[in-house]
Write a structure and sequence with these properties.
Layout lengths: L2 E5 L4 H12 L4 E5 L10 H6 L7 E3 L5 E3 L1 H9 L9 H31 L11 H16 L12 H10 L13 H13 L10
The structure holds glutathione.
Length: 201
C-alpha cells in the first residue's frame, strides 16, 4: 500500500520525505497542505497531528507519523541511506539532531520570515542571521575535507541538511561565502536528481 504524505511544497522538512521516497522508489500520495493558509490548523488536520505541523504521513497500516527525520528513518530502513557501521550510524544521528536543533531553527526560520511572511528587517530577530552564519561555517569546515557528511557516502544526514541549505539565498545568505557548502549542495542535489535551487549556477 502507498503511504500518504501531508506536505507543503515550500517546506524543506516536507521535501525531505519526498526526496527519500523518490530516491528509494517508494510511491507516495502527496496531499498539498499549506502552512501559510493555516491548513495545518483545521480540526481535521489536528485530529491527525495535534502538533499542527507537516510533514505528516499516514503509514500503510493507518498509523500517523510526524517529524521529518523520523519519517525519513522509517522510509530508509535497511537502505544504503543509513550507514551499517554503528559509529557511522551514530554520526548520522548526530547531524540529524543538530539539523533540527541548530540548523533548521536558524535557516528555515529566517527564510520563512523573509521570503514567505515578507517581514521587514526591523521585525526579524537580529540574532537569527549570525546564528545562520555560524551554522554554515560549521558545515563548511566539516566539508572542507569531505564530499558527504558521514562515511564518504550519501546518507540521511546529507538529505536532512540540504533541505533548507539549498534555499539559503531566500534567507539572505550568499553561499559563495561558504564554498564547500555550495559545492556539496550541488553534489547532493545531483545525487537526488534535482535541478539546483541555487541562484546563478
Ligand atoms: N521538527 C518538525 C518541524 C515541522 C514544522 O515546523 N513544520 C512546519 C512547516 S516546515 C509547519 O507545519 N508549521 C505549521 C505550524 O506550525 O503551524 C519536523 O522536522 O517535521
Amino acid at each position: 500500500m502507498t503511504i500518504t504524505v501531508y506536505g507543503d511544497s515550500i517546506s524543506g522538512n516536507c521535501l525531505k520525505v519526498k526526496f527519500v521516497a523518490d530516491l528509494l522508489g517508494k510511491p507516495i500520495r502527496w496531499i498539498e497542505t499549506s502552512v501559510v493558509r493555516k491548513e495545518t490548523r483545521t480540526p481535521a488536520f489536528l485530529a491527525l497531528n495535534p502538533a499542527g505541523q507537516v510533514p505528516l504521513v499516514i503509514l500503510e497500516d493507518g498509523r500517523p507519523l510526524a517529524q521529518s527525520n523520523a519519517i525519513m528513518l522509517y522510509l530508509a530502513e535497511g537502505s544504503r541511506l543509513i550507514p551499517a557501521d554503528a559509529v557511522d550510524r551514530a554520526l548520522m544521528f548526530q547531524w540529524l539532531f543538530w539539523e533540527q536543533y541548530s540548523h533548521e531553527t536558524a535557516i528555515a526560520v529566517l527564510r520563512f520570515h523573509k521570503a514567505y511572511l515578507k517581514k521587514p528587517e526591523s521585525e526579524i530577530d537580529p540574532a537569527l542571521k549570525p546564528k545562520c552564519e555560524r551554522v554554515l561555517t560549521i558545515m563548511n569546515d566539516h566539508l572542507a575535507t569531505r564530499a558527504y557528511f558521514v562515511a564518504d557516502a550519501l546518507s540521511l544526514a546529507d538529505i536532512a541538511l540540504v533541505a533548507y541549505t539549498r534555499f539559503s539565498h531566500e534567507a539572505g545568505l550568499d553561499l559563495r561565502q561558504w564554498p564547500h557548502v555550495q559545492g556539496w549542495v550541488v553534489r547532493i542535489e545531483k545525487d537526488l536528481g534535482l535541478k539546483t535551487a541555487l541562484p546563478n549556477l
